[in-house]
């Protein structure tokens, strides 16, 4: 949450980052002045900061860029993944003083100010990253301008009284309020119901390119709302928050599976699929965020470099198949993270449904996992053929 968004370049104003364990880092204001609170996490991408900032999955999080030099390509009007910047705050080491890309329509600092995003620069981001890797993601606050001079005990009190990410349902804050349609650009297959839990524009574009008329529905939609558009399949998007706090969306997904509709979920949609199958979810120590995460596709033995943004994961046995506790037949873990053996994908063997924990749209790259949109299209066509 942000207290102020006064315009202007504040690189000479003081700022301080305060973590809930009392750790403090002093630097310069970057973006809007004021106070912001959230979960401090790090993203490892060397590029693609515009896509990161506009990804709704980062709502409620203060994002630290591990790459030291940020902002040199500016911001443009073509690459945003949603209608605004969603991060709760922004931490960079060395913000660029100039914009040097021909596609830029403005600077990163100007965009942060416009959307009221309080940030901090000029601090040792490597030290903070190492600290989070050891202690885990934690609540933090950025205090800049006049708020940087607040009593340190008062700053720490505000941080420790902020809500933790565990138990939060944030999809309502980022979802559309009414149905929006993106027409198919490929050979038309039919209507696709997309439950918007924080969907990215690149995802919608990829689905439309596979022949779906993409109907983006609010996160509060019921199964009746989904059925009303006569979908050939259902898609659950990425999004912020704790999957254990989204029981309503899980209940709707169970109705989708019971109806035999093909299903594809990514990121948050993978976690909710796991819970619909009867599996548990848990919070990772520091999560996966960035565009360089190695994942093994167990079916092919191929290692993909993938884009991630998640702080929670599904609990499931990595090897072999197992029975869905909720009665959906056999299930297997289809993809595994090679850094820490986290479940990165699920595939149902007896119903037309699968999911992955990462982002196959991969804006701003890499595109190793883009084939998953083709796999979904093929699943829908095969299911239709079997029914007919």
TrEMBL record:
Composed of two chains; the small (or glutamine) chain promotes the hydrolysis of glutamine to ammonia, which is used by the large (or ammonia) chain to synthesize carbamoyl phosphate. Tetramer of heterodimers (alpha,beta)4. It catalyses: hydrogencarbonate + L-glutamine + 2 ATP + H2O = carbamoyl phosphate + L-glutamate + 2 ADP + phosphate + 2 H(+); L-glutamine + H2O = L-glutamate + NH4(+). It comes from Microbacterium capsulatum. Small subunit of the glutamine-dependent carbamoyl phosphate synthetase (CPSase). CPSase catalyzes the formation of carbamoyl phosphate from the ammonia moiety of glutamine, carbonate, and phosphate donated by ATP, constituting the first step of 2 biosynthetic pathways, one leading to arginine and/or urea and the other to pyrimidine nucleotides. The small subunit (glutamine amidotransferase) binds and cleaves glutamine to supply the large subunit with the substrate ammonia. Residues 13-143 form the Carbamoyl-phosphate synthase small subunit N-terminal domain. InterPro entries: Anth_synth/Amidotransfase, CarbamoylP_synth_ssu, CarbamoylP_synth_ssu_N, CarbP_synth_ssu_N_sf, Class_I_gatase-like, CPSase_GATase1, GATASE. NCBIfam families: CPSaseIIsmall, PRK12838.1. GO terms for molecular function: carbamoyl-phosphate synthase (glutamine-hydrolyzing) activity. The active site is at residues 267, 359, 361. The keyword DNA repair does not apply. PROSITE patterns: GATASE_TYPE_1. L-glutamine binds at residues 57, 239, 241, 268, 271, 309, 311-312. This is Carbamoyl phosphate synthase small chain. Residues 1-188 are annotated as: CPSase. Keywords: Amino-acid biosynthesis, Arginine biosynthesis, ATP-binding, Glutamine amidotransferase, Ligase, Nucleotide-binding, Pyrimidine biosynthesis. Its EC number is 6.3.5.5. The keyword Nucleotide-binding applies. It is an enzyme of class 6 (ligase).
